[in-house]
User: What shape does this take?
Amino acid sequence: MTSLADPSTTTGGAGTGAAARGAHNPWPGVALAGLLWTAAYSVVEPLSRWISHGLFGLPRGSHVGEAVAFFFYDVPKILLLLSGMIFIITVVRSFFSAERARRVLSGKRVGLGNVLAATLGIVTPFCSCSAVPLFIGFVESGIPLGVTFSFLIAAPVINEVALVLLFGMFGWRVAGLYVASGLAIAIVTGLVLGKLHLERYVEEFVWRTSFRDGHDETGELSWQERFSQARQAVGEILVKVWAYVLVGIGVGAAIHGYVPADALAGYMGKDGPWWSVPLVVLAALPLYSNAAGMAPVLQALVEKGAALGTALAFMMAVVGVSLPETILLRRVLKPQLIAIFVGVVTVAIVLTGYLFNALL
Assistant: This one.
Protein backbone atom coordinates (compact mmCIF):
# COMPACT_ATOMS: atom_id res chain seq x y z
CA MET A 1 0.00 0.00 0.00
CA THR A 2 1.37 3.40 -0.97
CA SER A 3 2.10 5.79 1.90
CA LEU A 4 0.68 9.28 1.48
CA ALA A 5 3.56 10.59 3.62
CA ASP A 6 6.15 9.49 1.06
CA PRO A 7 6.74 12.39 -1.37
CA SER A 8 8.48 10.12 -3.87
CA THR A 9 5.22 8.28 -4.57
CA THR A 10 2.92 11.28 -4.92
CA THR A 11 1.63 12.63 -8.21
CA GLY A 12 4.17 14.81 -9.93
CA GLY A 13 7.21 12.57 -9.64
CA ALA A 14 10.59 13.21 -8.12
CA GLY A 15 10.53 16.95 -8.74
CA THR A 16 7.34 17.38 -6.75
CA GLY A 17 8.71 15.14 -3.99
CA ALA A 18 11.86 17.24 -3.71
CA ALA A 19 9.78 20.41 -3.61
CA ALA A 20 7.60 18.93 -0.87
CA ARG A 21 10.65 17.96 1.18
CA GLY A 22 12.09 21.47 0.83
CA ALA A 23 8.76 23.11 1.65
CA HIS A 24 8.48 21.13 4.88
CA ASN A 25 12.06 21.58 6.08
CA PRO A 26 11.56 23.41 9.41
CA TRP A 27 15.19 24.18 10.22
CA PRO A 28 15.69 27.40 8.17
CA GLY A 29 12.65 28.98 9.80
CA VAL A 30 13.81 27.96 13.27
CA ALA A 31 17.30 29.35 12.59
CA LEU A 32 15.85 32.67 11.38
CA ALA A 33 13.59 32.89 14.43
CA GLY A 34 16.62 32.29 16.66
CA LEU A 35 18.54 35.13 15.02
CA LEU A 36 15.59 37.51 15.38
CA TRP A 37 15.16 36.48 19.01
CA THR A 38 18.85 37.17 19.74
CA ALA A 39 18.67 40.58 18.06
CA ALA A 40 15.54 41.54 20.00
CA TYR A 41 17.01 40.42 23.33
CA SER A 42 20.17 42.45 22.76
CA VAL A 43 18.24 45.75 22.48
CA VAL A 44 15.97 45.28 25.50
CA GLU A 45 18.18 47.08 28.03
CA PRO A 46 19.12 50.15 25.94
CA LEU A 47 15.53 50.45 24.70
CA SER A 48 14.16 50.40 28.26
CA ARG A 49 16.60 53.15 29.30
CA TRP A 50 15.65 55.27 26.28
CA ILE A 51 11.91 54.91 26.97
CA SER A 52 12.23 55.68 30.69
CA HIS A 53 14.84 58.45 30.74
CA GLY A 54 14.77 59.69 27.14
CA LEU A 55 11.20 59.47 25.88
CA PHE A 56 9.50 60.01 29.25
CA GLY A 57 12.28 62.20 30.65
CA LEU A 58 12.22 60.55 34.08
CA PRO A 59 15.33 61.32 36.15
CA ARG A 60 17.69 58.46 36.92
CA GLY A 61 17.69 57.41 40.57
CA SER A 62 14.19 58.75 41.29
CA HIS A 63 11.50 56.44 42.66
CA VAL A 64 9.26 56.68 39.63
CA GLY A 65 12.19 56.62 37.20
CA GLU A 66 13.60 53.41 38.69
CA ALA A 67 10.16 51.77 38.83
CA VAL A 68 9.34 52.61 35.21
CA ALA A 69 12.79 51.50 34.00
CA PHE A 70 12.37 48.19 35.87
CA PHE A 71 8.98 47.65 34.24
CA PHE A 72 10.03 48.41 30.66
CA TYR A 73 13.15 46.30 31.03
CA ASP A 74 11.58 43.23 32.61
CA VAL A 75 8.42 42.94 30.49
CA PRO A 76 10.12 42.33 27.10
CA LYS A 77 13.01 40.47 28.73
CA ILE A 78 10.73 37.97 30.49
CA LEU A 79 8.43 37.51 27.50
CA LEU A 80 11.43 36.86 25.25
CA LEU A 81 12.96 34.42 27.74
CA LEU A 82 9.64 32.62 28.03
CA SER A 83 9.06 32.37 24.29
CA GLY A 84 12.57 31.10 23.57
CA MET A 85 12.93 28.65 26.42
CA ILE A 86 9.36 27.31 26.27
CA PHE A 87 9.97 26.50 22.60
CA ILE A 88 13.13 24.55 23.48
CA ILE A 89 11.61 22.85 26.52
CA THR A 90 8.50 21.80 24.56
CA VAL A 91 10.66 20.20 21.88
CA VAL A 92 12.53 18.27 24.60
CA ARG A 93 9.26 17.32 26.29
CA SER A 94 7.89 15.97 23.01
CA PHE A 95 10.06 12.91 23.61
CA PHE A 96 8.23 12.18 26.89
CA SER A 97 4.63 11.60 27.97
CA ALA A 98 2.66 10.75 31.10
CA GLU A 99 2.03 7.25 29.71
CA ARG A 100 5.76 6.71 29.22
CA ALA A 101 6.45 8.02 32.73
CA ARG A 102 3.96 5.51 34.14
CA ARG A 103 5.64 2.66 32.27
CA VAL A 104 9.10 3.72 33.51
CA LEU A 105 7.95 3.95 37.13
CA SER A 106 5.77 0.85 37.18
CA GLY A 107 7.39 -1.82 39.34
CA LYS A 108 10.17 0.43 40.66
CA ARG A 109 10.86 0.07 44.36
CA VAL A 110 10.65 2.90 46.86
CA GLY A 111 13.80 5.03 46.91
CA LEU A 112 14.87 4.58 43.32
CA GLY A 113 11.27 5.05 42.29
CA ASN A 114 11.08 8.38 44.16
CA VAL A 115 14.23 9.64 42.45
CA LEU A 116 12.99 8.59 39.00
CA ALA A 117 9.52 10.02 39.66
CA ALA A 118 10.86 13.40 40.74
CA THR A 119 13.19 13.53 37.73
CA LEU A 120 10.41 12.61 35.31
CA GLY A 121 8.21 15.24 36.94
CA ILE A 122 10.54 17.94 35.60
CA VAL A 123 10.22 16.95 31.94
CA THR A 124 6.71 15.48 31.75
CA PRO A 125 3.94 17.91 30.68
CA PHE A 126 1.81 18.80 33.70
CA CYS A 127 -0.91 21.22 34.72
CA SER A 128 -3.30 21.35 37.65
CA CYS A 129 -6.11 19.83 35.56
CA SER A 130 -3.97 16.74 34.90
CA ALA A 131 -3.28 16.02 38.59
CA VAL A 132 -6.32 13.78 39.10
CA PRO A 133 -6.00 11.57 35.98
CA LEU A 134 -2.24 11.24 36.57
CA PHE A 135 -2.80 10.24 40.18
CA ILE A 136 -5.41 7.63 39.19
CA GLY A 137 -3.21 6.32 36.39
CA PHE A 138 -0.18 5.96 38.65
CA VAL A 139 -2.14 4.18 41.38
CA GLU A 140 -3.82 1.88 38.85
CA SER A 141 -0.37 0.94 37.51
CA GLY A 142 0.68 -0.27 40.95
CA ILE A 143 3.12 2.62 41.57
CA PRO A 144 3.54 3.17 45.35
CA LEU A 145 1.73 6.15 46.83
CA GLY A 146 4.95 7.86 47.98
CA VAL A 147 6.49 7.53 44.52
CA THR A 148 3.32 9.01 42.99
CA PHE A 149 3.57 12.01 45.31
CA SER A 150 7.22 12.55 44.36
CA PHE A 151 6.06 12.97 40.75
CA LEU A 152 3.07 15.19 41.62
CA ILE A 153 5.24 17.47 43.77
CA ALA A 154 8.18 17.79 41.35
CA ALA A 155 6.01 18.54 38.31
CA PRO A 156 4.57 21.87 39.55
CA VAL A 157 7.36 22.85 42.00
CA ILE A 158 10.15 22.62 39.40
CA ASN A 159 8.36 24.81 36.91
CA GLU A 160 9.95 25.49 33.53
CA VAL A 161 8.77 29.11 33.59
CA ALA A 162 10.38 29.65 37.00
CA LEU A 163 13.55 27.94 35.85
CA VAL A 164 13.82 30.16 32.76
CA LEU A 165 13.17 33.35 34.71
CA LEU A 166 15.54 32.48 37.56
CA PHE A 167 18.27 31.69 35.05
CA GLY A 168 17.70 34.99 33.24
CA MET A 169 17.59 37.02 36.47
CA PHE A 170 20.15 35.34 38.74
CA GLY A 171 22.24 33.02 36.56
CA TRP A 172 22.84 29.29 36.41
CA ARG A 173 23.87 28.88 40.05
CA VAL A 174 20.54 30.00 41.49
CA ALA A 175 18.60 28.18 38.75
CA GLY A 176 20.56 25.01 39.51
CA LEU A 177 19.93 25.32 43.24
CA TYR A 178 16.24 25.83 42.51
CA VAL A 179 16.12 22.54 40.57
CA ALA A 180 18.17 20.72 43.21
CA SER A 181 16.00 21.95 46.08
CA GLY A 182 12.81 21.11 44.18
CA LEU A 183 14.06 17.59 43.54
CA ALA A 184 15.04 17.21 47.20
CA ILE A 185 11.59 18.36 48.33
CA ALA A 186 9.84 15.96 45.95
CA ILE A 187 12.05 12.96 46.81
CA VAL A 188 12.11 13.44 50.60
CA THR A 189 8.40 14.31 50.80
CA GLY A 190 7.50 11.26 48.73
CA LEU A 191 9.65 9.03 50.96
CA VAL A 192 8.06 10.44 54.13
CA LEU A 193 4.51 10.06 52.80
CA GLY A 194 5.32 6.55 51.64
CA LYS A 195 6.63 5.53 55.07
CA LEU A 196 3.41 6.75 56.73
CA HIS A 197 1.32 4.15 54.81
CA LEU A 198 -1.53 6.53 54.04
CA GLU A 199 -3.31 4.41 51.42
CA ARG A 200 -6.43 4.31 53.61
CA TYR A 201 -6.87 8.04 52.99
CA VAL A 202 -7.19 7.61 49.22
CA GLU A 203 -10.80 7.61 48.01
CA GLU A 204 -12.06 4.07 47.45
CA PHE A 205 -13.08 4.57 43.81
CA VAL A 206 -9.44 5.25 42.85
CA TRP A 207 -8.44 1.66 43.58
CA ARG A 208 -11.26 0.40 41.33
CA THR A 209 -10.60 2.75 38.40
CA SER A 210 -8.91 1.55 35.23
CA PHE A 211 -7.12 4.40 33.48
CA ARG A 212 -5.15 4.63 30.26
CA ASP A 213 -3.70 7.65 28.51
CA GLY A 214 -3.87 5.93 25.16
CA HIS A 215 -1.16 5.17 22.64
CA ASP A 216 2.16 6.83 23.32
CA GLU A 217 3.19 8.59 20.12
CA THR A 218 6.02 10.77 21.39
CA GLY A 219 8.64 8.71 19.58
CA GLU A 220 6.83 8.90 16.21
CA LEU A 221 6.77 12.67 15.70
CA SER A 222 8.76 14.37 12.96
CA TRP A 223 10.82 17.49 13.65
CA GLN A 224 8.17 19.47 11.77
CA GLU A 225 5.53 18.21 14.19
CA ARG A 226 7.71 18.81 17.25
CA PHE A 227 8.42 22.40 16.18
CA SER A 228 4.75 22.92 15.41
CA GLN A 229 3.83 21.73 18.90
CA ALA A 230 6.49 24.03 20.37
CA ARG A 231 5.15 27.08 18.51
CA GLN A 232 1.65 26.22 19.68
CA ALA A 233 2.86 25.83 23.29
CA VAL A 234 4.58 29.22 23.18
CA GLY A 235 1.38 30.88 22.04
CA GLU A 236 -0.82 29.07 24.56
CA ILE A 237 1.45 29.71 27.53
CA LEU A 238 2.03 33.37 26.67
CA VAL A 239 -1.73 33.89 26.37
CA LYS A 240 -2.18 32.30 29.81
CA VAL A 241 0.63 34.09 31.64
CA TRP A 242 1.00 37.53 30.06
CA ALA A 243 -1.39 39.12 32.57
CA TYR A 244 0.48 37.50 35.46
CA VAL A 245 3.74 38.78 33.98
CA LEU A 246 2.44 42.35 33.82
CA VAL A 247 0.99 42.25 37.34
CA GLY A 248 4.06 40.56 38.79
CA ILE A 249 6.43 43.02 37.13
CA GLY A 250 4.20 45.89 38.23
CA VAL A 251 4.44 44.73 41.85
CA GLY A 252 8.16 44.15 41.42
CA ALA A 253 8.59 47.62 39.93
CA ALA A 254 6.77 49.19 42.88
CA ILE A 255 8.97 47.28 45.34
CA HIS A 256 12.08 48.18 43.32
CA GLY A 257 11.26 51.88 43.17
CA TYR A 258 9.52 52.65 46.44
CA VAL A 259 10.18 50.05 49.17
CA PRO A 260 13.12 51.11 51.38
CA ALA A 261 15.92 48.58 51.20
CA ASP A 262 16.77 48.84 54.90
CA ALA A 263 13.21 48.15 56.01
CA LEU A 264 12.82 45.07 53.82
CA ALA A 265 16.27 43.72 54.70
CA GLY A 266 15.45 44.07 58.39
CA TYR A 267 12.54 41.62 58.14
CA MET A 268 13.51 39.34 55.23
CA GLY A 269 17.30 39.73 55.10
CA LYS A 270 19.83 37.13 56.19
CA ASP A 271 20.17 38.91 59.54
CA GLY A 272 16.40 39.15 60.00
CA PRO A 273 14.40 37.23 62.64
CA TRP A 274 14.46 33.42 62.49
CA TRP A 275 10.70 33.26 62.00
CA SER A 276 10.77 35.23 58.74
CA VAL A 277 11.00 32.09 56.55
CA PRO A 278 8.05 30.18 58.09
CA LEU A 279 6.04 33.40 58.25
CA VAL A 280 6.37 34.18 54.53
CA VAL A 281 5.66 30.52 53.62
CA LEU A 282 2.50 30.46 55.74
CA ALA A 283 1.44 33.78 54.24
CA ALA A 284 1.93 32.34 50.75
CA LEU A 285 -0.19 29.19 51.21
CA PRO A 286 -3.62 30.76 50.58
CA LEU A 287 -2.31 32.82 47.67
CA TYR A 288 -2.39 31.64 44.09
CA SER A 289 -0.19 32.78 41.26
CA ASN A 290 2.09 31.14 38.75
CA ALA A 291 5.82 31.34 38.38
CA ALA A 292 5.61 34.00 35.68
CA GLY A 293 3.90 36.36 38.10
CA MET A 294 6.07 35.51 41.10
CA ALA A 295 9.56 35.60 39.57
CA PRO A 296 9.63 39.41 39.05
CA VAL A 297 8.46 39.87 42.65
CA LEU A 298 11.26 37.55 43.77
CA GLN A 299 13.79 39.59 41.81
CA ALA A 300 12.61 42.87 43.33
CA LEU A 301 12.62 41.45 46.87
CA VAL A 302 16.20 40.19 46.50
CA GLU A 303 17.38 43.48 44.99
CA LYS A 304 15.93 45.29 48.00
CA GLY A 305 17.82 43.17 50.51
CA ALA A 306 15.61 40.13 51.12
CA ALA A 307 17.56 36.91 51.59
CA LEU A 308 17.32 34.71 48.52
CA GLY A 309 16.25 31.66 50.53
CA THR A 310 13.41 33.56 52.19
CA ALA A 311 12.19 35.06 48.91
CA LEU A 312 12.50 31.74 47.06
CA ALA A 313 10.61 29.90 49.80
CA PHE A 314 7.79 32.41 49.37
CA MET A 315 7.69 31.81 45.61
CA MET A 316 7.85 28.02 45.93
CA ALA A 317 4.99 28.02 48.44
CA VAL A 318 2.78 30.12 46.16
CA VAL A 319 3.60 28.04 43.07
CA GLY A 320 4.20 24.58 44.56
CA VAL A 321 1.26 24.27 46.96
CA SER A 322 -1.14 25.30 44.23
CA LEU A 323 -4.68 25.97 45.46
CA PRO A 324 -6.32 24.70 42.21
CA GLU A 325 -4.24 21.49 42.32
CA THR A 326 -5.10 20.93 45.99
CA ILE A 327 -8.81 21.41 45.30
CA LEU A 328 -8.70 19.00 42.37
CA LEU A 329 -6.79 16.39 44.38
CA ARG A 330 -9.63 16.45 46.92
CA ARG A 331 -11.55 14.36 44.39
CA VAL A 332 -9.16 11.45 44.97
CA LEU A 333 -7.71 12.15 48.44
CA LYS A 334 -9.48 12.34 51.78
CA PRO A 335 -9.06 15.56 53.85
CA GLN A 336 -6.60 13.87 56.22
CA LEU A 337 -4.16 13.08 53.39
CA ILE A 338 -4.62 16.54 51.85
CA ALA A 339 -3.66 18.09 55.22
CA ILE A 340 -0.66 15.79 55.64
CA PHE A 341 0.46 16.45 52.07
CA VAL A 342 0.27 20.24 52.44
CA GLY A 343 1.93 20.11 55.87
CA VAL A 344 4.88 17.98 54.75
CA VAL A 345 5.47 20.09 51.62
CA THR A 346 5.26 23.29 53.69
CA VAL A 347 7.86 22.04 56.18
CA ALA A 348 10.13 20.98 53.30
CA ILE A 349 9.88 24.43 51.69
CA VAL A 350 10.67 26.16 55.00
CA LEU A 351 13.75 23.98 55.49
CA THR A 352 14.81 24.72 51.91
CA GLY A 353 14.55 28.45 52.62
CA TYR A 354 16.82 28.09 55.65
CA LEU A 355 19.27 26.00 53.61
CA PHE A 356 19.45 28.58 50.82
CA ASN A 357 20.03 31.36 53.35
CA ALA A 358 22.88 29.34 54.89
CA LEU A 359 24.54 28.56 51.56
CA LEU A 360 24.17 31.92 49.76
